[in-house]
Amino acid sequence: MRNLVIAIDGPSGAGKGTVARTLAERLGYRHVDTGAMYRAVAWKAAHDGVPLDDNEAVAGVATRAHLDQHGGRVTIDGHDVTRAIRTPEIDKAAAAVAKLPRVRTVLVDRQRALGAGGAVVMEGRDIGTVVFPDADVKIYLDASAEERARRRAADQAHTGGQQASVAHVQNDLVARDTTDSTRAVAPLALAPDAVYVDTTAMPIEAVVNRALMLVHEKLASERQG
């Protein structure tokens, strides 16, 4: 069975992380969260006092950084930032860093290297459009802004452990959507050949099963020649 590259894209709160992790586990594939890479670089830049709007300086941080994702943990230069990068402050910092062209060049190169051998489920906002435009399976997860906000407000890791109103979280999500979809470099977009899945009313298990079906259909079509 050929090792596939599976791209899962979509906005914040659509279920990418849970679906990608679960799908990777079911297939015995590696899971790569590209958003965590941008978050970790933003955290390290802020930690080192590097201005988040300095394209070359932040790209230098990204170039030098030792990034690792393993067993659900995220580390950068020896710092375990698994929890530290899931805060409202880092949400904003990551969005700022992700707009920087040189940073994207550095991290996209790293992402392509991670997925070069296949057997990977990679999630993000530009995987099927930029990082792996020839990915074997492309899935775009989406949900209503209200539902995405409800999920995010219930996730204390993303609210800094504080109670957050759904309306406030929704405003932040809509602002992030606008930033991601209008940035000049690698904007959030639905690839023409991606399968669109609206997860608003779907249990996670149903979304995972839909993704597994797409993978099996791809493998079956290749066996048939």
Structural classification: alpha/beta
CATH class identity: Alpha Beta
Helical residue percent band:
40-55%
- What's the main sheet like? 5 strands, parallel
Number of strands: 8
Can you name the CATH architecture?
A: 3-Layer(aba) Sandwich
Write out the CATH superfamily name: P-loop containing nucleotide triphosphate hydrolases
The helix/strand series, from N terminus to C terminus, equals EHEHHEEEHHEHEHHEH
As a percent range, the share of strand residues is 15-25%
> Biggest sheet: strands side by side, in what order?
2-6-1-7-8
Distance between the termini: 13 Å
**CATH fold-level label:** Rossmann fold
- The low-pLDDT segments are none
Rg value: 17 Å
Shape: globular
Mean pLDDT: 93
Counted by DSSP, the helix tally is: 9
Element layout with pairings:
Elements: E1 5-9, H1 16-27, E2 30-33, H2 34-47, H3 55-64, E3 67-70, E4 73-76, E5 79-80, H4 88-97, H5 101-115, E6 120-124, H6 127-131, E7 137-142, H7 145-154, H8 166-182, E8 195-198, H9 204-223
Parallel strand pairs: 1-6, 1-7, 2-6, 7-8
Antiparallel strand pairs: 3-4, 4-5
Helix pairs in contact: 1-9, 2-3, 2-4, 3-5, 7-8
Describe the overall structure.
The protein is an alpha/beta fold and 225 residues long. It has helices at 16-27, 34-47, 55-64, 88-97, 101-115, 127-131, 145-154, 166-182, 204-223, and strands at 5-9, 30-33, 67-70, 73-76, 79-80, 120-124, 137-142, 195-198. The model has no long low-confidence stretch (mean pLDDT 93).
